[in-house]
Amino acid sequence: MDNKKPVVILPLDGSKIAAVALEAAQAITKIMGGILHIVHAGDASVPDDKIAEHLKIKDMDVGSFSIKQIIGDPVKSIVGYASEVDAKMIVMASHGQTHNHTRLIGSITMGVVQEAESPVLIIRSGMKEFPGQNWKPAKMLCPLDGSPMAVAQMQQILSLADILNVDVDILNVAVHGQRATETGTLTTYEYEDYPQYDMPAWADEFIRRCCEVQPPGVEISMFQRAGEPVETMIDFSSESNNDLIALTWRGKLEGDRAQTVKGLLKDTKVPVLLTKASL
């Protein structure tokens, strides 16, 4: 049996804006019963007796943590270290010390979410309330379009839900006039004007296909809404008191790619957990 404790990675650069993720990282580490590795990567190291102050680390409330300094490119260093220690999750703020409010996320966060194989929990710097040290999420929203890519990642999301001890709300957003672009996608039920005819059977089939192995401690609920995807997801998460949103994506943010991910990162009121599809 592998008794290795799960590792949570928290990249910090010394800025106050990056430190907004510190308490969320501690909370996640405590829930997992893991070890928090705080990573400082850059062109120069900071003396050991100054590093905690430099990174704005104080009042730590986590069983075990360490501070790792790496000289080199921040993105490559963070991603490489996360792979080396087989990180269960990376927790980071949407922006760092080079914060530019006109950019959706900072360059280092963008690099990490695109390159890392570990799930990345992003704490948007513009949120009104940040998760505290004792944050205990209870419900996670998982928007799911029924595509083979999203379905393939569902087991990883359910595994994370089990570790975090959260229930899962699966939300399928129907967009009027939009057809599935990926072969094998489980589309909306036929009678949209009379959902009572098809909705129960459709929901059962959706969950059966998307959640082959349901962890016994995770309650899964199925919902459907119609409308613009990002706005609908954000409204639903507020109405349903979801504590975080988990989204599967292809790992590319350039140009017109990943519009749903970009929209959520711009306006979300809760942390966003990104899991990269295995292509």
Mind sketching the topology for me?
Blueprint: E1 7-11, H1 22-32, E2 35-42, H2 51-54, E3 65-71, H3 74-84, E4 89-93, H4 107-115, E5 120-123, E6 139-143, H5 148-164, E7 167-174, H6 195-210, E8 220-226, H7 229-239, E9 244-249, H8 259-267, E10 272-276
Parallel strand pairs: 1-2, 1-4, 2-3, 4-5, 6-7, 6-9, 7-8, 9-10
Antiparallel strand pairs: 5-10
Helix pairs in contact: 3-4, 7-8
Provide the descriptors you would attach to this structure in a database record.
alpha/beta; 10-stranded mixed β-sheet; 8 helices; 279 residues
Task: Tell me what the structure shows.
This protein has 279 residues and is of the alpha/beta class. It has helices spanning 22-32, 51-54, 74-84, 107-115, 148-164, 195-210, 229-239, 259-267, and strands spanning 7-11, 35-42, 65-71, 89-93, 120-123, 139-143, 167-174, 220-226, 244-249, 272-276. It is built from eight helices and ten strands. Strands 3-2-1-4-5-10-9-6-7-8 form a ten-stranded mixed sheet, sandwiched between helices. Helix 2 links the parallel strand 2 and strand 3. The longest helix has 17 residues, at 148-164. It is globular. The model is unreliable at 190-197 (pLDDT under 50).
